[in-house]
């Protein structure tokens, strides 16, 4: 038990009292050196911060994103920076655990004193860190979060956060159009993750007016159990759908492909994979032998294909990345990271020489939609919405897991997260600035 | 003083913490709140393992129950903050009592396995029912600090105050319980359950009670954790958290409540120390990511080898030995019972 005798207590009290007094003599604002201008910015530097899973369950694939961003920032720095300022990126590992993400975001904002956050990953982590660190009250911009949850585009709820991915609702509506145009009268099945992610998609399918003959929900995480994948195949065998839409995460896609091999049920249905679950790199990281099974399946993307060397952005990104990370393969996660960094640099440039946090947010709201960017869809930034890309193109997977656009060219469909129609986009993105540099 | 005037001592600690909180930067205040949460969580585990002799590898799940109860009450009924914490304690205690009923019939690896299964299985339940918000969880927003505290009063300082108030009250109360008849009964059960039963202690009932109280405390810690990160989701209470608590309890010394602060501070400070070391040696990402685990494992091994009962217990043992040489020490109550040729004793 706790026993402290009188002498020990007096000693302890004295030590505590001295410690308290010592701390009391330090002026309170000694800990707050940035009283005037915004933190993380000087005449020659800008400090940005990212927290993402570098280790843990979600790290395969995603862990390349900070490195890819850094590769582009370094390229810009080597060519004079942006508005005379060089960018440093502080990267932290949150293991995809919300508690850790909050702790790391606190370190970035309060200790590293970053100017803005960029590219934080995961809906739960981003929700938690935005609320707990009070980004909006502090006025810290959170640029281009890597999650498709439509809530982050809501300016009222998240005034300093900007999304970059199209929402899951938009994606479902575009898949809905594909089903109506190309598979009318066919037997349809849907496998989806039964949470916010999957329910966003359900809402989109409902708006699109698609009715599935068979729907198979699964609890997030249950894909790790062999029985789950086997259960899907049993149900699919019984229903025998012509087309099966799969709206889950990549580990669930791996489970589905594995179970279809074990159940001897390959090539019996036309699979359409949502953009999250169709990440061939992540599947290859866990079971490379399954990747060829993707061949012939349909998938969606809003960025140019990583293999498309005719695209000026892909060509530039490949060159930069090969120099910075010669041992790593260039894939869609690298494209995502570098595109994110590219857009951040363009926004910072547009915000001008007298860069402030407030000014940067206003710039993205007013000029964001017209900034140069690598994506093939329009950007939706405005004074009323913080939504990023607003559509997808549809393609077919090859044996290496690469997605190539159907018909040999990108046919982009664009829509919104509400009841708006899905239309074929005539959008032409702005030309890439010389050498992909901001100045 | 702690023995004679425990209330005064706890109030004294509270005043010191208050003065400190006014002078620390925001990041340290946030970490200070985390220490308070770990103090409660580790204490709940020490009560269970050190005092009643039961093992739990699933305390993260009990924290999760408390947190969901608090957050749901806040969202759907806009309940006052203090009430959400009370309900968190009650909800987790009910969960703990149910688990305790099973636990009282199990021991050793079987009990460890059962509690581990709870830690693994509970998040799936959160995903199953939409009221829990699935993988993304539900928000737990306690609102801004009262305006009367001034404009400079930050949200994290508010969390710090709430967490430490809860921790001090919980520790004060727990100290009383452990010094009461219940605490003595639990220790008797831990030392030798047959002897305890023969002395008239209802072993099963006492084990369930210990589990219930421990779970209630864990629920409180869980709700506080949800509060500091404004979110309650399965990812906030991973298996890793349950293991960290067990680690903290071993570092603190499982048989005494006195070291609980040591365990909590170490858990919060290790990543900081690791970062400082890594930065000194070039700041490589691999080192920053892996060093905390290495340091914790190293400390665990050293603790088990050098001070198996924890640093505080070791200090007490040394002092008792010292006192014995000087003057006669008061020996704790021991009970020895002889049945036929067998001897049962509460003496370790």
Task: Summarize the structure in words.
By secondary structure, chain A is α/β, with parallel strands linked by helices. Chain A has two domains: 45-166 and 305-389, 3-Layer(aba) Sandwich (Rossmann fold); 168-301, Response regulator (Rossmann fold, 3-Layer(aba) Sandwich), CATH 3.40.50. Helices cover 39% and strands 15% of the residues of chain A. In chain A, the strands form three sheets. A five-stranded parallel β-sheet of chain A has the order 2-1-3-4-5, sandwiched between helices. In chain A, β8 (243-247), α10 and β9 (270-273) form a beta-alpha-beta unit. Chain B has 13 helices and four strands. Chain B has helices at 6-21, 26-51, 59-77, 81-103, 108-128, 155-179, 181-191, 193-198, 203-229, 239-252, 260-280, 285-306, 311-326; strands at 138-139, 231-232, 336-339, 342-345. In chain B, the strands form two sheets. In chain B, strands 1-2 form a two-stranded antiparallel sheet. Classes of the chains: A alpha/beta (439), B mainly alpha (348). Chains A and B meet through α1, α4, α5 and α8 of A and α1, α2, α5, α6 and α9 of B.
Summary keywords:
heterodimer; A: 439 residues; alpha/beta; Rossmann fold; 2 domains; 5-stranded parallel β-sheet; 5-stranded antiparallel β-sheet; 14 helices; 39% helix; B: 348 residues; mainly alpha; ABC transporter involved in vitamin B12 uptake, BtuC; two-stranded antiparallel ribbon
Largest interface: A-B, 49 and 52 residues
Q: Please report the total strand number of chain B as a whole number.
A: 4
Biggest β-sheet of chain B: count, sense, barrel? 2 strands, antiparallel
Number of strands of chain A: 14
Radius of gyration of chain B, CA atoms, in whole angstroms? 21 Å
Q: In the CATH hierarchy, what is the class of chain B?
A: Mainly Alpha
CATH topology of chain B: ABC transporter involved in vitamin B12 uptake, BtuC
Please report the number of helical segments of chain B.
Answer: 13
Given the C-alpha coordinates, what overall shape of chain A results? globular
Based on helices, strands and strand pairing, what is the structural class of chain B? mainly alpha
- Whole-number mean pLDDT of chain B: 84
Q: Any guess at the CATH architecture of chain B?
A: Orthogonal Bundle
CATH topology of the largest domain in chain A: Rossmann fold
The succession of helices and strands of chain A, N to C, reads HEHHEHEHHEEHEHEHEHEHEHHHEEEE
The poorly predicted ranges of chain B are none
Helix content of chain B: over 70%
Q: Main sheet of chain A: which strands, in order across?
A: 2-1-3-4-5
What is the average per-residue confidence, as pLDDT of chain A, rounded to a whole number?
87
């Amino acid at each position: 038990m706790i026993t402290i005798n009188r002498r020990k207590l007096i000693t302890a009290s004295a030590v505590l009292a001295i410690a308290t007094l010592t701390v009391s003599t330090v002026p309170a604002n000694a800990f707050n050196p940035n009283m005037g201008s915004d933190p993380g910015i000087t005449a020659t530097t800008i400090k940005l911060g990212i927290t993402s899973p570098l280790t843990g369950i979600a790290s395969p694939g995603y862990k390349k994103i900070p490195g890819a961003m850094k590769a582009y920032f370094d390229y810009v720095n080597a060519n004079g920076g942006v508005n005379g300022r060089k960018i440093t990126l502080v990267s932290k590992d949150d293991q995809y655990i919300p508690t850790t993400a909050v702790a790391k975001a606190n370190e970035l904002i309060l200790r590293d004193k970053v100017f803005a956050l960029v590219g934080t990953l995961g809906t739960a982590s981003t929700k938690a860190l935005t609320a707990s660190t009070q980004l909006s009250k502090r006025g810290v911009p959170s640029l281009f979060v890597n999650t498709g949850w439509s809530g982050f585009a809501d300016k009222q709820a998240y005034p300093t956060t900007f999304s970059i991915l199209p929402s899951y609702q938009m994606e479902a509506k575009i898949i809905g159009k594909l089903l109506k145009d190309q598979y009318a009268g066919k037997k349809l099945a849907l496998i989806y993750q039964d949470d916010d992610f999957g329910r966003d998609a359900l809402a989109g399918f409902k708006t699109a007016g698609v009715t599935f003959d068979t729907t198979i929900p699964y609890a997030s995480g249950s894909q790790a159990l062999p029985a789950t994948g086997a259960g899907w195949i049993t149900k699919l065998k019984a229903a025998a759908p012509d087309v099966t839409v799969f709206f889950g995460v990549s580990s669930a896609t791996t489970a589905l492909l594995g179970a279809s091999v074990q159940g001897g049920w390959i090539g019996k249905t036309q699979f359409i994979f949502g953009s999250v679950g169709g990440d061939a790199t992540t599947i290859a990281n866990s079971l490379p032998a399954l990747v060829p099974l993707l061949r012939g399946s349909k998938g969606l993307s809003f960025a140019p294909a990583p293999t498309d060397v005719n695209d000026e952005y892909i060509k530039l990104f490949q060159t930069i990345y090969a120099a910075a990370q010669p041992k790593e393969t260039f894939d869609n996660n690298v494209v995502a990271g570098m595109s994110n960094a590219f857009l951040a640099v363009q926004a910072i440039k547009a915000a001008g020489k007298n860069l402030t946090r407030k000014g940067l947010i206003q710039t993205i709201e007013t000029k964001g939609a017209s900034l140069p960017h690598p994506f093939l869809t329009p950007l939706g930034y405005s004074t009323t919405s913080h939504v990023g890309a607003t559509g997808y193109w549809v393609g077919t997977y090859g044996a290496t897991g690469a997605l190539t656009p159907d018909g040999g060219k990108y046919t982009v469909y664009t829509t919104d997260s509400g009841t708006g129609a899905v239309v074929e986009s005539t959008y032409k993105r702005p030309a890439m600035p010389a050498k992909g540099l901001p100045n | 003083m702690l023995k004679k005037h425990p209330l005064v001592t706890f109030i004294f600690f509270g005043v010191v913490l208050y003065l400190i909180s006014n002078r620390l930067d925001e990041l340290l205040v946030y970490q200070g709140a985390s220490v308070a949460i770990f103090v409660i969580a580790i204490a709940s585990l020490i009560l269970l393992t050190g005092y009643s002799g039961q093992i739990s590898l699933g305390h993260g799940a009990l924290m999760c129950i408390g947190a969901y109860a608090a957050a749901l009450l806040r969202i759907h009924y806009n309940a006052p903050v203090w009430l959400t914490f009370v309900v968190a304690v009650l909800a987790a205690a009910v969960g703990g009592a149910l688990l305790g009923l099973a636990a009282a019939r199990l021991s050793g690896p079987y009990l460890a396995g059962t509690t581990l299964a709870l830690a693994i299985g509970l998040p799936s339940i959160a995903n199953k029912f939409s009221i829990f918000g699935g993988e993304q969880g539900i928000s737990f927003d306690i609102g801004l600090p009262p305006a009367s505290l001034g404009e400079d009063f930050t949200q994290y300082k508010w969390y710090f105050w709430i967490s430490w108030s809860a921790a001090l009250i919980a520790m004060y109360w727990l100290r009383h319980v452990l010094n009461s008849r219940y605490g003595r009964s639990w220790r008797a059960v831990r030392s030798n359950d047959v002897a305890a039963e023969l002395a008239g202690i209802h072993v099963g009932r006492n084990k369930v009670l210990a589990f219930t109280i421990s779970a209630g405390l864990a629920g409180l810690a869980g709700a506080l954790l949800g509060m500091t990160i404004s979110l309650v989701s399965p990812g906030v209470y991973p298996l890793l958290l349950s293991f960290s608590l067990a680690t903290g309890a071993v570092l603190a010394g499982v048989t005494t409540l006195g070291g609980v602060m040591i365990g909590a501070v170490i858990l919060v400070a290790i990543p900081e120390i690791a970062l400082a070391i890594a930065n000194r040696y070039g700041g490589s990402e691999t080192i920053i990511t892996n060093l905390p685990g290495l340091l914790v494992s190293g400390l665990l091994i050293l603790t088990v080898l050098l001070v198996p009962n924890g640093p505080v217990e070791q200090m007490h043992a040394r002092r008792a030995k010292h006192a014995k040489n000087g003057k006669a020490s008061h020996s704790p109550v021991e009970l020895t019972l002889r049945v036929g040729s067998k001897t049962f004793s509460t003496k370790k």
